[in-house]
Design brief:
This protein has 144 residues and is mainly alpha-helical. Helices cover 73% and strands 0% of the residues. Helix 4 packs antiparallel against helix 5. The protein is elongated, with a radius of gyration of 18 Å. The model has no long low-confidence stretch (mean pLDDT 91).
Amino acid sequence: MTSQENAVPVWFWVVSGLAVVWNALGVMAYIADFNQSVEDIAKLPQITQDLYAMRPDWAVWAFAVAVFAGLLGSILLLLKRKLASQVFLLSLVALLVQNYFWFGMAKAHQHFPASSQVMPALVIVIAIFLIWFARNSTARGWLR
């Protein structure tokens, strides 16, 4: 194969750059969540306070792993490393663990309008897309 046949198209860089931005926003959301003071939480609706109070440490750790692995996977894409797909898979597994708490154990979806489920669903769809994108890019020879 010539290097011309293996050339990475511009849209690869666009998708990879957007992945970095998306996952950096996830890291910022985690940091904001982690840094909430008792006073900040007290300003939230009572049901949200209750859900935060019952959140186990493993769910918080899953959130951290999900967002930081997602960001690392995105950086690995920019570096054209095929390890990105495994790191994205780790991110998805952590995301599913985190969602198991929120939707399986805490039943958060029963306390909020259906529209509040759009973002969690979108996050899962994008995580799955990024795994596919990294694997597809590897298969095309763009990642090493």
